[in-house]
Design brief:
The complex is a heterodimer of chains A (244) and B (218). With 244 residues, chain A is of the alpha/beta class. In chain A, 36% of the residues lie in helices and 28% in strands. In chain A, helix 3 (108-118) crosses helix 4 (123-136) and helix 3 runs parallel beside helix 5. The two termini of chain B are 43 Å apart. Chain B has helices spanning 13-26, 28-58, 64-72, 86-113, 115-123, 128-166, 169-172, 176-207, 210-215, and strands spanning 77-78, 81-82. The chains are: A alpha/beta (244), B mainly alpha (218).
């Protein structure tokens, strides 16, 4: 499903983002250049306040850059109108959040099927696929439960299933393990890695969870709104080894 | 291979109706508070007009001592019929105004509470128009429910009050059709109030960038 498998699924060119807070201007991103290949598992690491979440929002077409360009599948996001942007968010990108962000008043299956409803699928289609996805994340028998009746790990697994709903090319995960304990966090990481291998989905994850590093193909370190360095996994093992 | 982006489909109304109905049902208690404001305002309006309708139906058939009793109870006759006085109209306008402010306030709160939900919906591919439809439909349901309950309450209280005051003659000359008409238009009034209250909050919610909506603390 990734075509030739080597094209850039995300490309950022000189992306700058400035937030205005009253009189002050805060430069969250100061010219980020980044290319992410299809099928990669990328971790974006950096201390809080480094611009990590802002970068995440740029890649996810959730916010507009002040200057610079964001390409998703070689389409310039700034050229898209509201309908195309909604289509892109619905079909191309699956989002996973630190706070899960499930719709609280909907059951697990309703949460998972929502993106497919937005995509215009028929009821039979989306119910079947929804159950399939819940089975994939191991929650088939809890499909009628609402988020408050599920544990944190279970909620995040529902969120993973929801992110996969429309077979996106990219899964964007913002601190997916941030609100989970160690074991549950590891479960989610394993699940994501499994998906990236089995389905060839590009996984981009903002994190400061060291466990994420072991499964990442590349790690992008962000500091003060700039890409500090990009490391491949091989090289990474050495540096992590040194830390430990 | 030139990658393409398609346009998001607009959800059919049946789906929006279903989603908004379920959203409202899931937050029943919260929405009942908003609805209660409507019930009270509409009940007051319906009561005022129902009393005049009942009196007008009763008057031509009332014996002179009952007519005297009616007039001495403080109801004023203008050119042979009862109708709203400037004071009544002033009170109604005031109560509707207070109600409208209350509704806008309640809806703004409801929308603010749901910023994160709205942001999430937009991440999943919801169009701005879907968010607006969602809130407008919820307001329509609240308007219908509040309007129906309020006008029924108003008409009922008016009938019972007059029954107690002036006896069974009120029931014998019951202007059912007219009262139904009052109930109908006051329900419409509730819908109008509810919609007025929700439009601005819905517009704010729909235009928000999803990143901004997700950033709100919860």
């Amino acid at each position: 499903m990734n075509g030739n498998g080597a094209h850039n699924v995300v490309r950022l060119v000189d992306v700058v983002k400035v937030f205005r807070m009253g009189q002050q201007e805060v430069q969250a991103l100061r010219g980020v250049n980044l290319a992410i290949r299809s099928g990669e598992y990328i971790s974006i690491m950096g201390p809080s306040g480094s611009g990590k979440s802002t970068l995440f929002n740029m890649i996810g077409a959730l916010d507009k850059p002040t200057s610079g360009r964001v390409f998703i599948d070689e389409v310039d996001v700034s050229q898209l109108d509201a309908y195309e942007l909604a289509w892109l968010r619905c079909r191309k990108i699956g989002y996973i959040f630190q706070t899960f962000n499930l719709i609280q008043v909907m059951t697990a299956i309703e949460n998972v099927t929502l993106p497919m409803i937005f995509a215009g699928m028929s009821r039979d289609e989306y119910m079947e696929k929804g159950m399939e996805l819940l089975k994939l994340v191991g929650l088939a028998e809890r499909y009628q439960h609402k988020p408050p009746e599920l544990s944190g790990g279970q909620q995040q697994r529902v969120a993973v299933a929801r992110a996969l709903a429309n077979d996106p090319a990219i899964i964007l995960a913002d601190e997916p393990t941030g609100n989970l304990d160690l074991t549950t966090g590891e479960e989610i990481i394993t699940l994501l890695k499994h998906l990236s291998k089995e389905r060839g989905v590009t996984i981009i994850s903002a994190t400061h969870d060291i466990k994420m590093l072991n499964v990442s193909d590349r790690v992008v370190w962000i500091r003060d709104g700039r890409v500090d360095r990009i490391e491949d996994r091989e090289k990474l093992k050495i540096s992590v080894g040194e830390v430990a | 291979m030139r990658p393409t982006v398609e346009r998001q489909v607009v959800l059919p109304w049946a789906q929006v109706l279903r989603i908004s109905f379920n959203a409202l049902r899931a937050r029943l208690f919260r929405s009942l508070i908003t609805t209660a404001t409507l019930v009270l305002a509409v009940a007051f309006v319906a009561y005022t007009f129902a009393v005049y309708a009942l009196l007008n139906a009763l008057w031509p058939h009332a014996p002179s001592e009952l007519q005297e009793k009616i007039v001495s109870s403080g109801y004023e006759l203008f050119a042979g019929t009862f109708g709203s006085t400037p004071k009544d109209r002033w009170l109604i306008a005031l109560s509707l105004l207070v109600c409208a402010v209350g509704i806008v306030n309640a809806q703004l709160m409801a929308v603010t509470e749901r910023f994160r939900e709205i942001g999430t919906l937009k991440c999943l591919g919801a169009l701005d128009s879907f968010v607006i439809k969602l809130f407008v439909l919820e307001a329509v349901y609240q308007g219908l429910l509040g309007g129906a309950a309020g006008s029924a309450l108003g008409v009922l209280v008016a009938s019972v009050t007059l029954l107690v005051k002036f006896g069974t003659a009120v029931v014998r000359h019951f202007p059912a059709l007219e009262l139904a008409w009052i109930a109908a238009w006051s329900t419409g009034l509730a819908m109008l109030l509810s919609l007025t209250g929700v439009l601005y909050p819905a517009w704010v919610a729909a235009r928000m960038e999803p990143a901004l909506a997700l950033r709100t603390e919860q």
